[in-house]
Write a structure and sequence with these properties.
The chain has a five-stranded antiparallel sheet, sandwiched between helices. It contains twelve helices and five strands. The protein folds into two domains: about 1-205; about 220-360, Reverse transcriptase/Diguanylate cyclase domain (Alpha-Beta Plaits). The protein is of the alpha+beta class and about 375 residues long. Helix content is about 70%, strand content about 10%. Helix 3 (about 55-85) runs antiparallel to helix 4, helix 4 packs antiparallel against helix 5 and helix 5 (about 125-135) runs parallel beside helix 7. The chain has helices spanning about 1-10, 15-50, 55-85, 90-115, 125-135, 140-160, 170-210, 220-230, 245-255, 255-275, 330-350, 355-360; strands spanning about 235-245, 280-285, 285-290, 300-305, 315-325. The termini are far apart.
């Protein structure tokens, strides 16, 4: 129970969610400030029709309305300035929100003091507190502390007039409880919405990643190639088609798990060989690299060993072609030319020079 209460007042918040809450709170202040200022000015105009300028309340009422309007316009300006910043400072936003809460609450207490003295209802105070509860997103412990101080201060002011005879203590306490609960619930709702948004974003990112990447090697796949190929048209492109020699023997002799490790290691080697190229698993044990960097040209063979296939030297055959394709069809023709070049290289890497006769003898 204590843990739950602690979590309600001191929730653990992800940094991204905290930024989102700050942003939403600033947007609320930005959107609400001008309507409140306009409402106050209209209220003053309406009062002017009922109260003559010579009336004692006229000057005080004018000062009250102007003060509220100035505060609202200032909040509007500061919130807009903060929202335009690329990186929000949480501490700065927190201080700004607390200042808004305190200034508006003090203004509402001042107006309510005048209203209560004239035997009127505390409509201004209640309206301000409803606005703060609905639109001000503060950490629960801070909002609770501010609400308790605000309501206690108002009660003390009213008590100094007539012992707060016009206030029903029970209803007043209920109102405090509702205000506290409202601000806490609003804040936790933002946390839940933020968590849901983060989970949805992660799911979308994962879906987008798996849609354009090979699950085993992490390289881009054919679907990604169809998208990327649009970006290469009109550029000087080098295409490399890469094949793992005797890959079937690796699967037969060491198993498919070892074969998967070879594919993974090969993908790492290819990304090292072509750090600025677009690398794809083209299919099976064939890989494709598209690049616009001349300096990334490699030899037509490459060897390495993999622990999963002890004593087995992995030999890569690399065919390449280059050109200036102007459209998708010409780019696919360039890839086909690289594939044809790979076939020529494989004829050489399967020759006795590379131990091909020894492999055939073992069959």
């Amino acid at each position: 129970m204590l843990k739950r209460i602690k979590n309600w007042f001191f929730p653990e918040i992800n940094g991204a969610i905290l930024t989102n809450i700050d942003s939403e709170s600033l947007k609320n202040i930005y959107n609400v400030s001008i309507p409140v200022a306009v409402f106050e000015l209209l209220s003053f105009l309406f009062m002017s029709l009922r109260v003559l300028p010579a009336h004692p309340e006229y000057k005080t009422g004018m000062m009250s309305v102007l003060f509220c309007a100035v505060i609202c316009f200032a909040e509007f300006a500061v919130a807009g300035l903060m929202l335009r910043k690329q990186q929000l400072s949480h501490n700065a936003v927190m201080v700004f929100k607390i200042c808004c809460f305190v200034v508006l609450s003090l203004w509402a207490i001042w107006v309510s003091y005048r209203q209560y003295s004239r035997g009127e209802q505390l409509l201004t105070f209640y309206a301000v507190e409803i606005l703060l509860v609905c639109f001000m997103l503060l950490r629960p412990w801070i909002s609770t502390l501010l609400i308790l101080i605000t309501y206690s201060l108002l009660y003390a002011v009213l008590y100094s007039i007539d012992g707060a005879a016009g206030i029903n203590a029970f209803n007043y306490i209920v109102l405090i409880f509702v205000s506290v609960a409202g601000m806490i619930v609003s804040y936790h709702s933002q946390i839940r919405d933020g968590n849901h948004a983060i989970m949805l974003q992660k799911s979308n990112d994962l879906l987008e990643y798996t849609n354009v990447h090979d699950a085993l090697t992490g390289l881009r796949n054919r679907h990604a190639l169809n998208e990327d190929i649009k970006l290469l048209a009109g550029k000087h492109v080098l295409a490399y088609m890469i094949d793992i020699n005797y890959f079937k023997e690796i699967n037969d002799n060491f198993g498919h798990i070892a074969g998967d490790e070879v594919l993974k290691e090969t993908s790492k080697r290819i990304k090292t060989m072509f750090p600025k190229g677009l690398c794809y698993r083209f299919g099976g044990d064939e890989f494709l690299v598209l690049t616009t960097k001349e300096e990334e040209k490699e030899e037509d063979v490459y060897t390495f060993t993999v622990d999963a296939a002890p004593g087995n030297v992995i030999l890569l055959s690399i065919g390449h072609a280059e050109g200036d394709p102007q459209n998708n069809d010409e780019l696919y023709e360039l890839i086909a030319a690289a594939d044809a070049s790979l076939y020529v290289v494989k004829q050489r890497t399967h020759s006795p020079e590379f131990g091909g006769h020894e492999r055939r003898r073992r069959k």
